[in-house]
Amino acid sequence: MKILLLHDLESINIIKYIIESMDVKYRVLNPPKYSPTKYSYLNKLLSLGILLYLIIYTKIYNPKIVITFIDNYGLFETLSRAFIKIKFYSIQNGNRTKRELIPDYGYGSKRMRNAPNFFCFGDYEEMMFNKFGHKAKRFIPVGSLRHSFYLANNNNTKIMNDICFVSMWRDVCFSPNSKMIEHEANNMKSVDKYMQQYISATGKSLSIALRLGSNKEYNYYRELYGSSAKIVLREETSTYQLMDESELIISSHSTCCAEAFGIGKKVLWVDYSKDKRYSFYKEGLWLLTENTYTAFKDRLNILLNMNQSEYNNKTKKYADFVMKYDINQPTYLKIQNELKNSLLTN
Fold first, then answer.
1. 132 alpha-carbon distance from chain centroid
2. Which pTM does this prediction carry?
3. Which backbone phi and psi does 339 adopt, to 5 degrees?
């Protein structure tokens, strides 16, 4: 066996666009899962059991390459250090924000990352990893794999909306027991309040790309906007298509915002936290941190009234830093070429 694909996340497209044309033997393995208990020693024991299973499986099938689309899967990183003759590659599937990379924030894993070969969005990831003490054997900036699948089949979409708001709604934000409520929910509510005020005052067209599509999320935005916004479920229209149809994309830390930024779309991250924990980007047209309606309104007006050529001139260099998009060589081909070269030298 040449390639072991760990997890079935996007496995159909990874096989279709990357592996099939390589004409190599492969397997897809979904590691066992467990629900964390209140006993830390039991959680460690269960995790160790899964790791042993992965080690035995890998040893039996002895692949040349192991890849995963869950780039922050801790056991994958541990497994990669157990087989020095096998090439391990993780493919970035989502933004790794400052909040996630600093353990003291208490969000996500509290471990320090030590990734193998890392197919990342752009040079921004290497900067972030180094800044906050994380490591990777090799950073390979290739852009977004998932977005490249969409772009392979979609182009020339007409602009139909002024603004697309990519929801970062989480039910947990409204739980009194959640540590996230103080920051994430407050950030979300401030953005929602200003957006509702802006749409009411200007009559601009707004579409909401729901994050989860639950009844609670839908009802939250329906109550906020009534009929003044188009609320779109993922099964109706993909977030990528909704962004393509919009002049401006807005979110707090959605991966979709970075993906749109990489192909030259107008984007705005809105982060009202004191330390830019959601959108740790350098200052520019693409980032708003001043928590006032006036600042919000003025920035949206600037972006919506700016012609595309001027916007691209002002943002392209940093957009390439964040998301390494290449119209002539999509992400899935960059990854495929790396894997081919790896098999030739392995």
1. 19
2. 0.93
3. -65, -40
pLDDT at site 112: 83
CA nearest 260: which of 204, 207, 312, 193? 312
Tokens 């989860």 -> residue: 212
> Please, what are the domains in the chain?
3-150+330-345 (3.40.50.2000), 155-322 (3.40.50.2000)
- Both tokens of 308, joined, read 């595309």
CA dihedral over 8, 12, 14, 19, signed as positive or negative: positive
Query: Coil, strand or helix: which one is 62?
Result: coil
Which residues have a Cβ under 8 Å from the Cβ of 236 and sit 6 or more positions away?
none
Measuring CA to CA, which residue among 334, 318, 326 is closest to residue 127? 318
> How far lies 38's CA from each of 1, 48, 181, 320, 338, in Å?
39, 17, 22, 43, 42
Residue 287, beta-bridge partner list: 269
The CB density around residue 101, as the number of other CB atoms within 10 Å, is 22
Distance CA(127)–CA(223), nearest Å, equals 40
Q: How many helices (H) and strands (E) does the chain have?
A: 13, 12
33 Cβ contact list (under 8 Å, min separation 6): none
Q: What is the gyration radius of the CA atoms in the chain, in angstroms?
A: 21
- Assign 182 a pLDDT band (cuts: 50, 70, 90): low
Residues 119-176 have pLDDT tens digits of 999 999 999 999 999 999 999 999 999 999 999 988 767 889 999 999 888 776 666 6
Q: Which residues contact 257 (CB under 8 A, 6 or more apart)?
A: 166, 249, 250, 251, 267, 268, 269
How far apart CA 140 and CA 118 sit, in angstroms, is 6
φ/ψ of 65, rounded to 5, equals -135, 140
**Which of 96-100, 104-108, 337-341 has the least mean pLDDT?**
104-108
| Residue 256 identity (one-letter amino acid) | C
